[in-house]
Amino acid sequence: MKSARIKLTDKGPDFSRFVLGFWRLTTWGMTTSDLIRFIEESLELGITTFDHADIYGSYTCEETFGAALEKAPHLRDSMQLVTKCGIKLISDNRPNHTIKHYDTSAAHIIASAENSLKVLNTDRIDLLLIHRHDPLMDPDDVAEAFSKLRSAGKVLHFGVSNFTPSQLDLLISRVDVPIITNQVEFSVMHVEPMFDGTIDMCQKNCISPMAWSSLGGGSLFSGDDERAVRLKNALSVVGASLGDKPIDQVALAWLLNHPAGIVPVLGTGKLERVRSAVESEALELSREQWFAILAASRGIDVP
Ligand code: NAP
Q: Does the C-beta of 213 come closer than 6 Å to ligand 1?
């Protein structure tokens, strides 16, 4: 089975139904050849959209991915690259950073995007996200950076991550380019975005939210507290009634079955888990099944 496509807005862009994230790349122990194979096999499964951030791996993951693209440049046109900017970490790789902070000045956004282009070994970023809301964010400054990057052809689309509805609303009101997603933490383990206006705001603006840690960052499998056990039981019951489907597939299908067009971001470095995720696209949950999982997550039925 191959992953489907989804348009993040009615005008595009066209991304894979699942995005593959590279936050944990340094823990996967892959050589450049292993990474090229993993990218190729993911592309064969229809997963073409890859999520990065300047800071992943303490500013090393983009470069590791870029080394794969340098060796296999033909892969670039088959994929969409997402990356993020705006967080400044304390890191040996950034010795001039003295405190962890955010920077959404036009100068930093442009410099960060240009560095991402260089280390990723690409001439364009398909989607650039502001990683977190910056309390000192000047929306007009962000607008200026986005316009300059777009007119130079360096970044094709723009979005945000971890923005509240009002922060997203403010930015949308001031930029000249469409904001095409808000990438937020969302999974059966973290259902708050459906109740704090985050998903509503995306639906209102007809943009698809992306869900990071779409399997709870692995805690769905490793967790043994009361809630994790209850959730695993509920997912297993639904999985059994769908024809013995594993809980990862049911948890992802729960996101896919939401009408907001949620795009889950996967964090695995194992191809068999990517393949399993793609199979979840075939699962249709009834309302009763969907609400049983919600109730297990919250520990209570809806009022
Ligand atoms: P995730 O898919 O929820 O969690 C990945 C973890 O779960 C890995 O350790 C993986 O281990 C484990 N896992 C996956 N399937 C499993 C299974 N069937 N059984 C047991 N363990 C399993 O996603 P995430 O890595 O937390 O986040 C995904 C991506 O979202 C990141 O790579 C990054 O691109 C993005 N992200 C964005 C933000 C943001 O602020 N915008 C924040 C965090 C993450 P294996 O590798 O061993 O499979």
A: yes
- The CA 187 to ligand 1 mean position distance, Å, reads 11
Tell me the average pLDDT of the chain. Answer: 98
Ligand 1 lined by 212 (C-beta under 6 Å):
yes
Counted residue by residue, the chain has a size of 303
Half-sphere exposure of 243 (CA within 13 A, CB side): 6
Can you tell me the mean pLDDT for 79-107? 98
Nearest to 84 by CA among 137, 133, 35, 47: 133
For residue 296, what are the CA distances in angstroms to 147, 167, 185, 188, 250?
45, 31, 18, 9, 13
Please list, in sequence order, all residues whose beta carbon lies within 8 angstroms of the beta carbon of residue 112, skipping any fewer than 6 positions away. 54, 85, 86
pTM confidence score = 0.98
Structure tokens that stand for 190 in this block: 């973290």
Is residue 54 within 6 Å of ligand 1 at its C-beta?
A: no
